[in-house]
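#dry-run=false #mode=assembly
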Amino acid sequence: MTRNPDDIKPSFRSDVTVELVKHTAGDSDVLWAARVSTAGEQSLDELSKDPERSKGLINYLMRDRHGSPFEHNSMTFFISAPIFVFREFMRHRVGWSYNEESGRYRELQPVFYVPDESRKLVQEGRPGKYVFVEGTQAQQELTGRVMEDSYRQAYEAYQEMLDAGVAREVARSVLPVGLYSSMYATCNARSLMHFLGLRTQHELARVPSFPQREIEMVGERMEEHWAKLMPLTYAAFNANGRVAP
Ligand SMILES: Cc1cc2nc3c(=O)[nH]c(=O)nc-3n(C[C@H](O)[C@H](O)[C@H](O)COP(=O)(O)OP(=O)(O)OC[C@H]3O[C@@H](n4cnc5c(N)ncnc54)[C@H](O)[C@@H]3O)c2cc1C
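#status=ok
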């Protein structure tokens, strides 16, 4: 049955979704893994034995970049964000597992990214040394209008092909990178720290990075979840310049 283009109602978002869907991650996991090297097999409840010593050990591991004790834990996030964020995200190969929704097996839904007024629109400076500044009211209005028009047109073309019997995997070629996708991403504290060091900006970062704002929004939300699960590890990460061990 042919759909009426007027029935297709794209929706426009400016935010990202990040849910912690499962985890086995705590500061005890770091201590447990680290102490096997000096004391052999350990109980998992290392933290409660001597909290100050535990805190010191985690800080020492972070400072001297003994990284492997930070790998014995797991966090799985459900993330919904524009495809251009996922293109950047999946460059992180080590210590990450991904499963993303399929554009071959299901019809993609018309949800698209439009920046809100908090998103700085104008880049000033040269490559490698630039800043982003607020756009004018006119630039904001133009960006919203042009993006929405373009998304509508692309999604209508997609629908037209589907209605004519063209396969989803072929028809999706016309959809833009502003389309939302979703995935599960599983990592451990070490791979998350490496990600955060590159994809967030922070006053405590010893090595500054310049991430695109939208992937930074995802990183900030993952960081909030992780900070609650592993507060000592999180504090040591910040205290040591936000460089992954
Ligand atoms: C601000 C910013 C701008 C960027 N711009 C671009 C761009 O313009 N174009 C572009 O293509 N990418 C760009 N990237 C992506 C970047 O080059 C990395 O691919 C991405 O940040 C993932 O980092 P990673 O390789 O360290 O992470 P992971 O893939 O998770 O690797 C983790 C670590 O494992 C080691 N490692 C992994 N694979 C190898 C290997 N094959 N050989 C040796 N060591 C390895 C390295 O020590 C690496 O740091 C950008 C990233 C950032 C943060």
